[in-house]
UniProtKB/TrEMBL annotation:
One of its GO terms (molecular function) is 1-(5-phosphoribosyl)-5-[(5-phosphoribosylamino)methylideneamino]imidazole-4-carboxamide isomerase activity. Belongs to the HisA/HisF family. It comes from the Eukaryota. PANTHER family: 1-(5-PHOSPHORIBOSYL)-5-[(5-PHOSPHORIBOSYLAMINO)METHYLIDENEAMINO] IMIDAZOLE-4-CARBOXAMIDE ISOMERASE (PTHR43090:SF2). InterPro entries: Aldolase_TIM, His6/HISN3, His_biosynth, Isoase_HisA-like, RibuloseP-bd_barrel. GO terms for cellular component: chloroplast. Gene3D superfamilies: Aldolase class I. It holds the Pfam family His_biosynth. GO terms for biological process: L-histidine biosynthetic process; L-tryptophan biosynthetic process. Pathway: Amino-acid biosynthesis; L-histidine biosynthesis; L-histidine from 5-phospho-alpha-D-ribose 1-diphosphate: step 4/9. This is 1-(5-phosphoribosyl)-5-[(5-phosphoribosylamino)methylideneamino] imidazole-4-carboxamide isomerase HISN3, chloroplastic. It is an enzyme of class 5 (isomerase).
Length: 310
């Protein structure tokens, strides 16, 4: 019964999609009450995922790494802080996530080098339809990543170009791949008590403030949001609870928060502050990335959030 979640949506025929009611992390799908489907009577199962753990694979120079994102710079100047570098390939991590039935995670290319692109594609092949991909996505390459197996493409800098939102670019992207294939990365930093969307490896502040109005507007173009709390990301010092509260209160579509998670208590804080509406990504803190937080414990927590009601 738990297979009637969006994790299996790619297996549902296109003609059936009009039957699915989608609201944040809840879907309703009419199913036949018997395997023979001989009766015209149908039963509605409502599948609630609650808060979900969204796995991640960050790729830098072709390898899986955990890097303090705010230290990445195109110029190569400054000190790059790397928390972890794995001897396992991105495809191995994707295979693990597929085995554990984790979907909706993201593969992020932290660079435009050929090795990172190849590694990302290998990860998509290992978990087809189960991972989103981001990093240098634009109107010229978005469709190719979908064809390689990405469920969605994740976009920031292409849309928030030069510090401003380029609405024409956003519209072209939606026209090309469809709203249901687009995740907008609205990662932000706090300035003067407001959260501003940041671009170009989180080095540049845009003019767009993340609030109720901007979330409502951007939701008309995207299927999901991904939001890194850049001020705490990669530092394992705790979450940005104020940001999580904002997302849980105002995001009208599914949203995933990343940044600062260091314990199971932090997972519960996100669940509470986000009112059950904000999914969570964990990076450096996980033991599979060199941290102390048990990946298995996080997966168990994820599974506990799910319930099926008739």
């Amino acid at each position: 019964m738990m297979t009637l979640t969006l994790r299996s949506a790619s297996k549902i025929s296109p003609a059936s999609f009009h039957q699915i009611k989608h609201k944040k992390n809840q879907w309703a799908l009419p199913v036949c009450p018997s395997s023979s489907c001989s009766s015209s009577r149908s039963v509605h199962l409502v599948v609630e995922c609650g808060v979900r753990f969204r796995p991640c694979i960050d790729i830098h120079e072709g390898k899986v790494k955990q890097i303090v994102g705010s230290t990445l710079q195109d110029s190569g100047k400054g000190t790059l802080i790397t928390n972890f570098e794995s001897d396992k390939s991105p495809a191995e991590y994707a295979t693990l996530y597929k085995k554990d039935e984790l979907a909706g995670g993201h593969v992020i290319m932290l660079g435009a080098d050929a090795a990172s692109k190849c590694a990302a594609i290998e990860a998509l092949h290992a978990h087809p339809g189960g991972m989103q991909v981001g990093g240098g996505i634009n109107v010229d390459n978005a469709q190719s990543y979908i064809e390689e197996g990405a469920s969605h493409v994740i976009v920031t800098s292409y849309v928030f170009d030069g510090g401003h939102m380029d609405l024409e670019r956003l519209k072209r992207l939606v026209q090309l791949i469809g709203k249901n294939r687009l995740v907008l990365d609205l990662s932000c930093r706090k300035k003067n008590s407001s959260y501003f969307i940041v671009t170009d490896r989180w080095q540049k502040f845009s003019s767009v403030i993340l609030d109720k109005t901007s979330l409502a507007f951007l939701a008309t173009f995207a299927d999901e949001f991904l939001v890194h709390g850049v001020d705490v990301e990669g530092k394992r010092l705790g979450i940005d609870e104020t940001l999580v509260t904002l997302l849980g209160r105002y995001s009208p579509i599914p949203v995933t928060y990343a940044g600062g998670v260091n314990s199971m208590a932090d997972m519960e804080r996100i669940k509470k502050a986000g009112k059950g509406n904000v999914d969570v990504t964990v990076g450096s803190a996980l033991d599979i990335f060199g941290g102390d937080l048990s990946y298995r414990e996080v997966v168990s927590w994820h599974n506990e959030q799910k319930s099926v009601r008739r």
